[in-house]
Recover the amino acids of this structure.
């Protein structure tokens, strides 16, 4: 089946007594144990509703198995701590989601895990690999500049050396990118974003081979960050429209990226689907669509970022991303607020940079909102 059909039919449970067409919500936390071995328990990550969603996601990502978590950070921390022990070395890119950056800075140090942060390019990432490197951790495309990292080039080196490559693919969603196809071992999603898609659900997922998932599951039972049945059901419901939503959002984003690039009040647009984006060719080679996140920089003399955001009527200033509604934020005062001016400058996060999560609204309404906020 194609992805649009898998979104609807993959993994769903047809309950035999009623033959209702939606998966029932199995709220039980206790299951009869007589004559069975695969006893479900929510924190064992094996209840019917957890398994239904995981089957759908594994089919969409093209992996054997997966695990569902109560947040994206639960997925990231559990995956990393299931792989790593004191003395191991990890290479990470420096353009990292803020929560992941904090995890590395605070918890890795405490656990004696050694790490190197390098710029998000295959060459520099591979150059940082040592004999002690156990894991390479990436995000593609990155936040907020949408840099695509050449996944295949990295796994061609890490794979044969037995180094596990992990990719946070949240910004792409399984519709636009399947890292497993590029040899990536573990794909992670903050399900709070595109998978859930309605800004009302917090969850995460990790997708990988059956062997790796077994290893992660054993650690996950100890950390305990599983997802409850009702939220699994809501996520399954959301995933039915994932293909529709993300396709529409990506189309809108490409149109808006072109529109902004041509606008006199905008000095720079970062969208991997634009030929002007520094990693456009990498994105084109490993993504089937370019996603619905874009960033743009306002012209220094013509308009103030705060005024611009205040004047928007339809596009809402909000944190988080990936919902059906368009939202916008200034990374300098939100996700990157705790960095020094120098660090922000090095990461090209200026006060004039805005990150735009494009929704499924009519693209003309979005353009019009931008125009009226620009006063043009
Ligand atoms: C939001 C996000 C996370 C963290 O997910 P939570 O569900 O908030 O825990 C991780 N990575 C990326 C790229 C994100 O956007």
């Amino acid at each position: 089946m194609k992805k649009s059909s898998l979104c609807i039919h993959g993994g769903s449970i047809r309950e035999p007594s009623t033959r209702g067409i939606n998966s029932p919500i199995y709220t039980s936390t206790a299951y009869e144990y007589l004559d069975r071995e695969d006893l479900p328990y929510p924190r064992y990550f094996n209840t019917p509703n957890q398994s239904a969603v995981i089957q759908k996601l594994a089919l969409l990502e093209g992996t054997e198995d997966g695990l569902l978590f109560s947040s994206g950070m639960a997925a990231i921390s559990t995956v990393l701590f299931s792989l790593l022990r004191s003395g191991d070395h990890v290479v990470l890119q420096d353009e990292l989601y803020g929560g992941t950056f904090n995890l590395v800075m605070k918890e890795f140090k405490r656990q004696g895990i050694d790490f190197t942060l390098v710029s998000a390019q295959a060459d520099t990432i591979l150059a940082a690999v040592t004999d002690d490197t156990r894991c390479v951790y990436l995000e593609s495309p990155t936040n907020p500049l949408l840099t695509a990292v050449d996944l295949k080039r990295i796994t061609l080196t890490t794979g044969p050396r037995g180094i596990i490559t992990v990719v946070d693919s949240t910004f792409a969603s399984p519709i636009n990118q399947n890292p497993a196809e590029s040899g990536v071992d573990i794909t992670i999603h903050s399900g709070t974003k595109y998978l859930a898609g309605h800004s009302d659900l917090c969850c995460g997922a990790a997708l990988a081979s059956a062997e790796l998932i077994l290893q992660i599951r054993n650690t996950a039972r100890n950390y305990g960050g599983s997802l409850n049945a009702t939220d699994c059901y809501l996520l399954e419901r959301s995933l039915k429209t994932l293909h529709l939503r993300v396709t529409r959002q990506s189309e809108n984003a490409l149109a808006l990226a072109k529109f902004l690039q041509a606008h006199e009040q905008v000095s720079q647009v970062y969208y991997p689907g634009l030929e002007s984006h520094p990693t456009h060719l990498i994105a084109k080679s490993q993504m089937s669509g370019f996603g619905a996140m874009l960033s743009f920089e306002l012209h220094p003399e013509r308009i103030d970022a705060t005024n611009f955001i205040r004047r928007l009527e339809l596009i809402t200033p909000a944190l988080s991303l990936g919902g059906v509604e368009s939202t916008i934020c200034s990374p300098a005062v939100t996700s990157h607020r705790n960095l020094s001016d120098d660090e922000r400058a090095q990461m090209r996060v200026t006060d004039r940079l805005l990150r735009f999560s494009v929704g499924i609204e009519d693209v003309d309404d979005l353009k019009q909102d931008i125009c009226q906020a620009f006063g043009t």
Remarks:
- The chain has a mean pLDDT of 96.
- The longest strand covers residues 133-139.
- The two ends are 46 Å apart (CA to CA).
- The pocket of pyridoxal-5'-phosphate is lined by residues 71-73, 97, 99, 139, 143, 168, 170-171, 190, 192-193, 202, 204 (CB under 6 Å).
